Amino acid sequence: MSTALVLAAAGREPEAQLERRLAGDGFHVLRAGADGEALELVERGRPDLVLVGEVELCARLREGEPGRCWNREVPVIVLGPERAGVAERVRAFARGADDWVGTPVVYDELAARIRAVLRRAAPPPPARLEVDGLVIDRASRTVTVAGAPVAAAGKEFELLAKLASEPRRVFTKDELLRDVWGYRTASSRTRTLDSHASRLRRRLADAAADERRFVVNVWGVGYKLLE
């Protein structure tokens, strides 16, 4: 499932262009034309993060309103003027902002800050994942299949843990390269992913010693852990 964002930047940036770039990076963007519409979208859409252009909208999100129900802890990034003074930025944080990004936006910085805020807001991943006889222990960074150890170090371990987090979901190659390797552009990096996935598949198959298949290649799309 893609990360949902409400974009209520109050005209500080060319919102259509920003929306396109966010969507191209895998975010599901709900664009609001006014504060009231933004509150309605946050209430109805339950986004993972909200981008606002006005500090007062951030305050309204945090305070709530009678008869309205939304997640008052939703992460909020304020898109404010680059030349804003310290007092204005401090005021934004005092009214509940999680971060401040100056406008005009440098897109790569905004995307990095969005992901950083989302990481801080996310619940910690489970220390142990168990799927169809496969056990992934994050604390010891070990992997076993039916009790047999499987060598999976570095990015192979991270890739396997990512796939196991939603074992029947198909993760796109762009998504895996972004979340596991940190690449923004996947076009020249797919062989990196494919080689790691191939090694993992072979090692897991050898350890399973039965017909179970792990790290399934969905042609033209990406990978999932199980059939």
Structure description:
With 227 residues, this protein is of the alpha/beta class. It folds into two domains: 118 residues, Response regulator (Rossmann fold, 3-Layer(aba) Sandwich), CATH 3.40.50; 97 residues, Arc Repressor Mutant, subunit A, CATH 1.10.10. The chain contains eight helices and twelve strands. A five-stranded parallel beta sheet has the order 2-1-3-4-5, sandwiched between helices. α6 packs across α7 and α6 packs across α8. The longest helix is centred in the last third of the chain and has 19 residues. It is elongated.
List keywords for this structure.
41% helix; 5-stranded parallel beta sheet; 227 residues; Arc Repressor Mutant, subunit A; 2 domains; elongated; alpha/beta; 4-stranded antiparallel beta sheet; 8 helices; Rossmann fold
